[in-house]
Amino acid sequence: MANILSWHIKAACDGTFDDRPFDSHLREQKAFIKEFCDGCVVRDLCLLDAIENDNPPGVWGGMTLAEREKLLRRSKNALGIVSVRTTQS
Description:
Blueprint: H1 27-37, H2 43-53, H3 65-79
């Protein structure tokens, strides 16, 4: 696997939102930030990095934390992955 962190230098948003507060509940702000993701050449890598590394809240790969969590739940459900708890006798 290629160095997943190398996608940062090709990101459309690179250096744009550094140290700026982000409130994912603000619809206008979220839409504005997601515009950077539209057509970004590394969008998929950004999303993969966010999911694999549990990146902080914010828009990563065009998705907010809540959207990423929903995607993961749907993916697990589609694959039939469930949490199994075992007990000892």
